[in-house]
């Protein structure tokens, strides 16, 4: 395999109310409809393009220096590659010097390469869908697309990585997954992802649960104070460790299954935080 697996970085890093990483999500419109897809991707999916208001909010909440990272996913980003190229130009003209990552199924290889080539700082890379790149668990991408991407990676080492093989129980989830039996499917612990800014203006705590509208995931909107977004995200992590993980262990459930099917039984991070403060103050 030409493509190397992308390495994860430290989780939950916040500096001066700015997150080290932020995902950008314009909806679940896609040219595939994988049977395991966490976002319910489909050609009939929703799509709202990136705008200056949306990107300005991202620029207020992510680290702007080299450590920062903005990650475009979806849906399939190459379906509106012109809007993504415009967004990258906007981010670069607004002092964002961090890394940009495009999650893609690679089928529209030419458009994906145009996106990578458009970055004036040459710091935009791609992460390919494992199943569609390998053909394990989904129909493989057309061979000419694969060959084009492999040739690009050979000339530009590190430009195109491959995603993780793990399948988590979120969205369409693990039950319909038809890939190799050996692929990891039971993730007992939450991976503690960085949050998402949706192009409808909502900040959401988890990229895997992005189509889950439970109040537990709501961090604010593009009109919120960035300090409040950072605090809400921090509270969400505390909730994962003090409420969510103990529940998953007590009921012997994979972490994402708890978010997908059991949240109604759990207090929101805001309610859990308020309870902890009352207990700490000794007023009951
Ligand atoms: C939701 S897709 C969006 C971008 C693009 N369409 C793609 O497939 O890469 C982003 C990543 O999520 C992964 N993914 C989708 N469903 C998943 C699941 N149930 N568990 C783990 N990863 C999943 C995909 O394999 C892909 O690498
Ligand atoms: S995993 Fe990616 S390619 Fe597959 S349906 Fe979901 S968004 Fe589309
Ligand atoms: S456990 Fe919940 S918060 Fe963590 S990745 Fe899964 S769905 Fe997201």
UniProtKB/TrEMBL annotation:
InterPro entries: Aldolase_TIM, rSAM, rSAM_sf. GO terms for molecular function: catalytic activity; iron-sulfur cluster binding; metal ion binding. The keyword Calcium does not apply. Keywords: Iron, Iron-sulfur, Metal-binding, S-adenosyl-L-methionine. This is Radical SAM protein. It comes from Phormidesmis priestleyi.
